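Subject: Sanity check before I submit

Could someone independently write out the structure tokens for this chain? I want to compare against mine line by line before I put it in a report. The sequence has 65 residues.
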Amino acid sequence: MNWDQIEGKWKQLRGSVKQQWGQLTDDDIDRVDGSRDKLVGKIQEAYGIEREEADRQVSQWFDRL
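---
Independent answer below. Compare away.
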């Protein structure tokens, strides 16, 4: 799977995102709308972590799909 497929299946993957990052609100997930960069930013903001760590978490989540 590539990130373009993630964008296309974003509505189906919302539950997985919510399970992985429970501090993200439904509005946050809606605003991400499948964008990797926006997801990394929202995780960084919600969890108060460095961008590199948020990017690493997204990569790990993506690899498990």
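---
OP: Matches mine. For the report I'm noting this point. The chain has five helices and no strands.
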